[in-house]
Amino acid sequence: MDREALLLDGGRDDGDETRDTAALAVELLGADGWRVTHLALREIEIAPCFGCFGCWVRTPGVCVIDDAGRDVARRMVQSDLLVYLTPLTFGGYSSELKKAVDRLIPNILPFFQSIDGEVHHVKRYERYPRLVAIGVAPSGPVDPEDEELFETLVHRNAINYRAPSAAACVIAASDDDAVRRDRIARVLEVDAGGGS
Amino acid sequence: MSDATKHVVLLVGSPKGLEKSRSSRLARPVVDGLERRGWTSESLHLHAEVATEEGRERLLGAVDRADLILFAAPLYVDSLPAPAIRGLELIAARQRTDGVERAPRFVSILCCGFVEPSQNDTCQRILQRFADQAGFEWVTGVSLGGGGPISKRARSALGILTEALDLEILVPDEVDRLTRKPAMPRWLYIIGGNVMWRRWAKEYDARDRLRDRPYRRPDS
Ligand SMILES: Cc1cc2nc3c(=O)[nH]c(=O)nc-3n(C[C@H](O)[C@H](O)[C@H](O)COP(=O)(O)O)c2cc1C
């Protein structure tokens, strides 16, 4: 069976912020044998989470909002790799990426358990995808504080969304092609190919 | 606005809005307290404002009038709900392009579902980065955990915060000390919470379906 990757692209407006990086990630994963679904979230209507917890107590496992957010949640669970791509936004995710991420909570159970001395939710499914996040800073050089914050956020998310493993990197839009290719290949754990 | 009258703008980033959300119920006493001290105020619900052109204008207008921005939101997956991030994106983009000179002070109140207030730490750092980039003066971030109603300790912390904001003095460490501790032991929170979810699902006849796996992979 093919390995499935889901790329959630949180580029805003016309998508300029992430277009090249998304294309590079799709190319590198494809060359490594992954089947990639690339969702440009700015083009997809996904209502914001209402915070009603209906996806836990009313229609368990399915969001009460019937729109493309459900489709993203289904694809997430059925993937082996989940890639978040986002313009670095105050060290975190853009609103476009986050509208999809907020709608993934149906995929965990409401029940609480202790993980490493903190409360988190119990798994709904046996398997979850590895999480890789790529942040694109609008201009270089990348602020190390932003990078560290982004990595922390991704690792916190991996605990909450029960990813078996996680990695993150931040690249600058102004990095040259070879540098970007190399960093993205490394975080995706694939070969950088001829371009590096 | 005269020098004597200060203006606080409350931005609420919960889908549950200005009345029902826990975040706004935490922030409201601060706004009320400042009003009692002679401040004026306005409150905006970010989810509603970012959804329309008029709302976005209103949001930016309110920020321009603010001496103090009080931002209150729930923690959503270690960060803010998407529409709250949208609001901050708009504010930061405007502050950068317009080069507004005044630097309003910025305070955040975050509440999360899990019992440990420290779960909000990453998000508080995101808000601090936002304040830097928007050209606001970061004052402090108050973090509250879940579990039960708003505690007496949290209320007194918010009282101390209000006074410090009014007097424009450093926020005393007392605020952090009163809010840092989980409201109850973790084991109790876990047991009580798990009972609560089952009861809630029962109301919808969904108790036996709580562990459904509608999206299970065909190969698992
Ligand atoms: C989509 C979603 C994600 C959440 N993520 C977290 C989380 O990562 N950590 C946490 O402690 N609570 C989390 N919560 C719980 C909320 O922070 C909590 O219920 C909060 O008190 C809601 O406040 P409000 O009434 O102001 O919206 C989440 C809730 C929702 C709906």
Structural summary, described in words:
The complex is a heterodimer of chains A (196) and B (220). Chain A is built from 6 helices and 7 strands; from the N terminus they run βαβααβαβββαβα. By secondary structure, chain A is an alpha/beta fold. Chain A has a single domain, classed as Flavodoxin domain (Rossmann fold, 3-Layer(aba) Sandwich). A 5-stranded parallel beta sheet of chain A has the order 2-1-3-6-7, with helices on both faces. In chain A, strands 4-5 form a two-stranded antiparallel sheet. In chain A, β6 (130-137), α5 (144-160) and β7 (166-172) form a beta-alpha-beta unit. In chain A, 49% of the residues are buried. With 220 residues, chain B is of the alpha/beta class. Chain B folds into 2 domains: 7-184, Flavodoxin domain (Rossmann fold, 3-Layer(aba) Sandwich); 185-220, no CATH class. Chain B has helices at residues 17-20, 22-36, 46-49, 53-65, 82-98, 121-134, 152-167, 173-179, 186-203, and strands at residues 7-12, 40-45, 68-74, 105-111, 137-144. In chain B, α2 (22-36) crosses α7 (152-167), α4 (53-65) crosses α5 (82-98) and α7 (152-167) runs antiparallel to α8. The model of chain B has no long low-confidence stretch (mean pLDDT 94). Classes of the chains: A alpha/beta (196), B alpha/beta (220). Chains A and B meet through α3, α4, β4, β5 and α5 of A and α5, α6 and α9 of B. Flavin mononucleotide sits between chains B (14, 16, 21-23, 74-78, 111-114, 119, 146) and A (49, 51, 102, 105, 160).
CATH homologous superfamily of chain A - what is it?
Flavodoxin domain
Percent range of helical residues of chain B: 40-55%
Count of domain modules of chain A: 1
What is the number of domains of chain B?
2
Strand order of the largest sheet of chain B: 2-1-3-4-5
- Which residue ranges of chain A are poorly predicted, with pLDDT under 50 across at least 5 consecutive positions? none
The dominant shape of chain B is: globular
How far is the first residue's CA from the last residue's CA of chain B? 64 Å
Sheet/helix structural class of chain B: alpha/beta
Summed up, the helix count of chain B is 9
- The overall pLDDT average of chain B reads 94
- Gross morphology of chain A: globular
Number of strands of chain A: 7
Low-confidence segments of chain B: none
Helix amount of chain A, in percent?
Answer: 25-40%
What ligands does this structure carry?
Answer: flavin mononucleotide
Q: Would you state the CATH class of the largest domain in chain B?
A: Alpha Beta
Cα gyration radius of chain A (Å) = 16 Å
| CATH architectural grouping of chain A | 3-Layer(aba) Sandwich
